[in-house]
Please model this.
Amino acid sequence: METPDTNTDPLQGGSPMPGTTLAGDDQKPAGAQPSDGTQPPAGTVPSEEQKLTVIMNIAVIFLFFVSPLIGFLIATKDQPFLKEQSRLALNGTITYAIFLFASVVLNATVILSIIGIPLMGLALVLTLYGGIKGAVESSHGRLYRYPMSLNLVR
Model:
């Protein structure tokens, strides 16, 4: 009688244990973006740079666009991951600031507050979600583009 193997073959319906790779497996992790010069291969981001991006993304929840702006300005040529993730976070938070401004203008007129209140809620929820998801993805060494963000900072 065979003992069950914890590292099963994915071709036979099983899945390998998290963190393990099969010999000859050249696939990227789920959700990873292709390596085209702007996206570092998984696992090659320096630890300090990863920590800074995680802190920056968490700080988005409390400081809004200030933390990605600081990250974008302090990133050097030696920190491409921090620079790119800061740019993506800055694009997202500027977009959400535009949503908030539009919702305040719409709420100023009583009739259009039907649109303004949900828009304000959407901007706040997207900021919270983007900050948390961005921190998680950064901790894994992957870039994260905030949802519904405009590409304003290049």
User: Anything to note?
Assistant: Residues 2-37 have pLDDT under 50 and may be disordered. The chain is about 55% helix and 0% strand. Residues 45 and 123 are 30 Å apart (CA to CA).
